[in-house]
Amino acid sequence: MPAPGPSTLRYGGNTPCVEVRAGGQLFILDAGTGLRALGRQLLAELAGDPLHANLLLTHYHWDHIEGLPSFEPLFLASTNLRLFGPVPQGEAVRDLVDILRVLFDSSFSPLRPESARATVTPTHLTGGSDITLGDTHIRTCTLNHPQGALAYRLEHNGVAVVYATDHEPGKVDLDRALCDLAHDAHLFISDAQFTPEELAVPGAAGAARGHGSWDASVRLAREAEVKNLVLFHHHPARADEEIDRLLASAREVFPATCAAAEGMMIDAEPDRVHLWALHGRRGQRVSLPMAVQVEATREGSPLRHPAHLKDIGFQGAYFLSPESYEREQPLSVEITWPGEERAFRRTEDEGLVRLRGTVARIDPKASNGGWTGIGVTFTESFTIDVLPLPGGGNGRGDPDAD
Known about the structure:
Elements: E1 18-22, E2 25-29, H1 34-46, E3 52-56, E4 80-86, H2 96-103, E5 119-125, E6 130-133, E7 136-143, E8 149-156, E9 159-164, H3 172-182, E10 187-191, H4 196-200, H5 214-224, E11 229-232, H6 240-253, E12 257-259, E13 264-269, E14 272-277, E15 285-298, E16 301-313, E17 316-321, E18 330-337, E19 341-342, E20 345-346, E21 351-363, E22 372-378, E23 383-386
Parallel strand pairs: 2-3, 3-4, 4-5, 9-10, 10-11, 11-12
Antiparallel strand pairs: 1-2, 6-7, 7-8, 8-9, 13-14, 15-16, 15-18, 16-17, 17-22, 18-21, 19-20, 21-22, 21-23
Helix pairs in contact: 3-5
């Protein structure tokens, strides 16, 4: 279910929806509540031109289709939507067209099926389907999930992206099929809803729910020799700080791991994969140009260097750095806050503000001096340490005071 609120500001609270662009074509993977914002973005981008898109559904549980009634292009006659998905398993829905009928049922919605004026062309797929749309080759396999689900592998121009949400490991044949599908993928988007501990307890919330863990995703990524792993389908009760910790654990085993976040964009080419943020972090910020110290870890060694702080707010900060970072890399920004002086005598303590967070934005050409713009979101409350004055004083005129 959607999980908006202050605890999910950084990773986001929408249900699954991933946009893939390849060879001039638009692919949409699943139609969760994230589809609403995507629809508005596409309409603004098209500026009146018709939308042609391919919607690939993994299955029909609510969290993967509930965004369709809010997908504005669906209600325009100019929209051409090719709809792909498995044959539904259940009593209420018999085929892909029935999905719209159920979503617009008068018991649940003021909309009627005929409100969807777009041209919708349905195609059923099965595990092992192999199709080509334009210049993009698409293969599927079956996942271990109640009522079934499909994983998709999209290949274009030497780049492979595999989308495998909603899979519970444990069935050898299905695990092997997914490993084969994901082999050597540039980007592997994998189910990581639960922790290994949650899945290990019989009868617990995670047991037999058709989902995996970050640990299972990491093991599969290593076995399949994928180049980059994206932890996906976060538990709706998982706060940002918890995802930070899961991500840190995953990176200890598979360093090329990131956690899916609202607005994240990934530019994939045969020889590199680059992650960056689509939108700047919103919120009130104040300009605060001053010198700061940044501390991070690179290849196990601490890295410390000066930087220029530009602005700061409650949720994050933006600074210019002579060093480069990776998205979601942990770091700390230290600001030396001068004490107040009156009549040549310091009356308030000098302080050191430590802001700990992760990299959320990277602007390689943020300044003419070759420095990189770095946006950081705070992952924990900042700390302020009192710095002793030269000579052992504490700023209150009493060198022996504690």
